[in-house]
Amino acid sequence: MWYKNRAHANWGVVSWQAVVKALDSRTWNPSIPDHTIAERFTALVSCIDTHLPDGVKDVVGVWFETGGAERMMEVSDEEWHMMKHIALSLCSSAILSPETILDGLIFPVWNVAFRPHGTLTRPQALARTLPLSRSILLCEPLESMEDKDVDVVLRLETCRARATRPSNIPTIFRGIHALAILERDEALDVTIREDVRDLRQRILQDPFMRSNLFSRTILLQGVFDAISAEQPGKRDILVSNLKECLTSEWVPDSVTGE
To answer: Containing domain of residue 168, as a range?
Structure first.
């Protein structure tokens, strides 16, 4: 039985790598829209998932952990947007977990904020994480999804509920602190910084996020303490962000003094 399970796992790895290679090669008929191709790849991965005893979730998760996340920071916008659509569709269908998408496509880019003297070599990589972040954390459909399914928002709400389960909350808090640092990074284009700020503020104001995340003050304080120890030079930014997270009625000007 062990060799049969191993064969299944290897088949899953090879299948997923073939999908990634196909996205990179772009060898399909150029007259077919990328969105249509992305839907076809999503259907293919869904079919593969049904034939694996444990599905594709572990296969995709390991791929991100072993170089896939770094690779996606460097790919073309066309490939990234197709992967974004595939990943979110698989996530909203419960084939992939939300944390796989957060940890594989979003947080690796945001966490550059915590590297010593670290700046994004491709700032656009940050900008293109924002729509996907809004989908998972704020239930905002991607532009390509809005007219496709009447239940898309419901599926995104279910996805967010899974994304914000207790074990994931510290990682999300860390991501929000990273946004606070990035929005003040003068090396970034002002438009990107404004978009980052808008996302962070919307997360802080969202009723679901306030009720289910920011009410967990012990977790919030623990994440703040850990990052402050790692990043003493950014403590002022972290303190300001923590105050905004803890404010019961979110009024940024009264907190930040801006």
So the answer is: 2-256
